């Protein structure tokens, strides 16, 4: 998304030429592939190193209980660090270029401020989604600080890393939309009026 917006704003005349449907499908498949490769290699290494009896045993469905080889832990940390660095540098570069381009194009302070706010919102959204790369390491550190609280740590980690970014994004963009915001205010006013009318009616009955 960051690269597409960078091309649309910084290279508008070449946007239709660069961002074609075929290239979009290709890059979606490529992203899926590089995300699946680490897990597939973990699976093959586990199949090759673990005895047959391990696959008939009952264990809690946790990554460290299934992929127990220490090499796999180091490999995952290395992949997470590489992915996090690449995505972070891409976000910083593209959004800074977009911000400078928007500032150079528009001379009105209001337009510049709106563009900056939009860019910051997109950046915050993507940075929140990037938390999944560092969540395993954070979980290990928190488990060392708060031993015996692993279930609570995992629950909070799941809410913050996976639920919150996907929950906040539609709310933020919806509230920024003027038409949606107007209908949302009207809805809350109607709800408040109905609740106050109900309370007033109950008081009269009493």
TrEMBL record:
Protein's cellular compartments: Membrane
SUPFAM superfamilies linked to this entry: Family A G protein-coupled receptor-like
Top-level taxon of the source organism: Eukaryota
GO CC entries: membrane
GO MF entry, a single one: odorant binding
Keyword Phosphoprotein: no
Keywords in alphabetical order: Membrane, Transmembrane, Transmembrane helix
Listed InterPro entries: GPCR1_Superfamily_Member (IPR052921), GPCR_Rhodpsn (IPR000276), GPCR_Rhodpsn_7TM (IPR017452)
Transmembrane segments: 24-48, 81-105, 117-135, 155-175
Name the UniProt record assigns to this protein: G-protein coupled receptors family 1 profile domain-containing protein
């Amino acid at each position: 998304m960051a690269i597409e917006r960078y091309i649309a704003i910084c290279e508008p005349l070449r946007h239709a030429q660069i961002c074609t449907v075929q290239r979009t499908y290709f890059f979606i498949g490529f992203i899926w592939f590089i995300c699946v490769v680490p897990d597939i290699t973990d699976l093959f290494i586990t199949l090759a190193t673990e005895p047959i009896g391990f696959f008939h045993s009952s264990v809690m469905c946790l990554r460290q209980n299934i992929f127990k080889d220490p090499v796999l832990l180091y490999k995952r940390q290395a992949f997470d660090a590489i992915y996090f660095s690449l995505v972070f540098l891409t976000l910083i570069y593209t959004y800074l270029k977009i911000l400078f381009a928007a500032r150079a194009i528009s001379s009105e302070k209001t337009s510049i401020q709106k563009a900056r706010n939009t860019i910051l919102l997109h950046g915050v959204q993507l940075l929140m989604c990037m938390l999944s790369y560092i969540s395993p390491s954070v979980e290990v550190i928190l488990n060392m600080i708060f031993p015996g609280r692993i279930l609570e740590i995992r629950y909070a980690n799941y809410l913050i890393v996976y639920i919150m970014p996907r929950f906040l994004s539609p709310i933020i963009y919806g509230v920024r939309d003027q038409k949606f915001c107007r209908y949302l205010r009207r809805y809350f006013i109607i709800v408040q009026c109905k609740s106050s009318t109900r309370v007033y009616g109950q008081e009269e009955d009493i």
